[in-house]
Structure formats: C-alpha cells, structure tokens
Design a protein that fits this description.
The protein has helices at residues 7-15, 22-29, 33-45, 63-76, 80-85, 98-105, 130-140, 173-182, 184-198, and strands spanning 19-20, 49-51, 56-58, 94-96, 118-126, 149-157, 163-165, 168-170. It folds into two domains: 2-75, Orthogonal Bundle (Arc Repressor Mutant, subunit A), CATH 1.10.10.10; 79-198, 2-Layer Sandwich (Beta Polymerase, domain 2). Helix 7 links the parallel strand 5 (118-126) and strand 6 (149-157). The protein starts with 6 loop residues before the first helix and ends in a 15-residue tail after the last helix. The protein has a three-stranded antiparallel β-sheet with strand order 1-3-2. By secondary structure, the protein is α+β, with helices and mostly antiparallel strands.
Length: 213
C-alpha cells in the first residue's frame, strides 16, 4: 500500500479520464511511457482502472480511487498553488489572463485584491474543452465562477494562441500591458516591474511615497 502512494500514482489518478489511453496519460503527466505503464498496471491490480489492449477505463466507484481523490481535495485543494499547477494535467487548451497574466509576467511580483477567502484564478479555456475541463474541476472538488474561496474565473473562447513565459501559457505581453493600461490605477506598479524585467522602454514610473511624520 505505501509503495502505491507516490507522485506518479497521484498524477495518474488526477489526470486519468473516464476513458483514456496509457500514451495520452503519459503525455498529460509528462512521465515516460514505461513508468506510466508500470503504475497504471499497479492501479489495475487495485481495481482503480480496467485495461484493454488499447484503452484505460476509470472505475470511479473504486474505494482506493475515491479515498485518494478525497485526500487530494482535503489536503491540496485549498492551496492556490495546487489550483494553478493541476491545470497542466488536464490536457486542455488554456492560458492565464487579466490579473493572472500580470502575475505571470511579473514573475509573481505583483498580485492584487486576492486573499485566501477570495482568490479567483483568471483563465481562458478553449470552448471545445469546456466539458472535459468542468469534469476535472468537479472530479477534484474545485470551483468555477464562485464568490468565495479559491476558484477559476473562466472565459470560454473559440481560439487560444498563448505565449509561454517560464513554461506557463499566458496572454501575450502586449495584451497584458493593454489590460494594465485600461486599469492603470491598479497596475501602475506592475507596469514598472514589467518594464524592469523585460527591459522595455516606457514612461510609466511608480514609487510609493515615503513621508516623514
């Protein structure tokens, strides 16, 4: 039992769809086919999945599966970092936008109006991936378009052409700057951070005033 609880198993259980394939799971979790095959075989012995020559079928009623999903939800679901990182296991087309595009382009240096009790994660999801995205969110007990806690604020769009910055899919820097310029009162500090990080010419300068009382 102890040997079965490891990062490979956790990622496979998160990433596995109701009907899947070993190769697709391997690509989704970014683990070699050989390792993926080994641990899916272990899950098959526990009844978590049923295997045919070409397909992997998830048994959502399996006790080990349900306990693992419950553990993931209870221990990880309340962390914003998990809600960010788990998106890469869904195999969907998405990118970070608006406030989260600012967060990515400033390398986490600027975050605004978010805290544990209210933490929207702003993303675009390809409209064709809406059904599978919402299935994953329900499976893991996460949230969409809520008004409290950590949740995804989602726009479903017909096409996505993200820029990858430090491995993260995100709106282009030009679109992000355009968004910040629309709300300069909130994002003047972020504009300066981006100018410094990207060495882009600009006239925006912001410094908090320091006064002697």
């Amino acid at each position: 039992m102890i040997e079965t609880i490891n990062p490979y198993i956790m990622k496979i259980i998160i990433a596995c769809r109701q009907q899947d394939s070993m190769r697709a799971i391997s690509q989704r979790i970014h683990v070699s086919y050989g390792w993926t095959y080994q641990w899916i075989q272990e899950l098959a012995r526990k009844g978590v999945v049923r295997l045919t020559r070409m397909k992997v079928y998830l048994n959502e009623n399996n006790e080990f599966y349900r306990q693992t999903i419950d553990y993931i939800h209870r221990t990880l679901g309340s962390y914003a970092s998990f809600n960010y990182e788990v998106l890469s296991l869904f195999g969907i087309r998405y990118c970070f936008t608006q406030t989260d595009a600012v967060y990515v382009w400033t390398k986490g240096g600027y975050n605004i109006a978010r805290y544990r009790e209210y933490y929207p994660i702003f993303i675009k999801v390809h409209r064709d991936d809406k059904k599978i995205f919402e299935w994953y969110v329900q499976k893991l007990g996460l949230g969409i378009n809520k008004h409290h806690g950590i949740f995804y604020k989602v726009w479903y769009v017909d096409s996505i052409e993200p820029t990858y910055y430090e491995g993260m899919p995100v709106d282009s820097l030009e679109d992000t700057i355009k968004f910040m310029n629309q709300y300069q009162y909130n994002f003047l500090p972020a504009l300066e951070i981006i100018q410094e990080l990207q060495q882009r010419p600009g006239t925006v300068k912001y410094r908090e005033a320091v006064t002697n009382v």
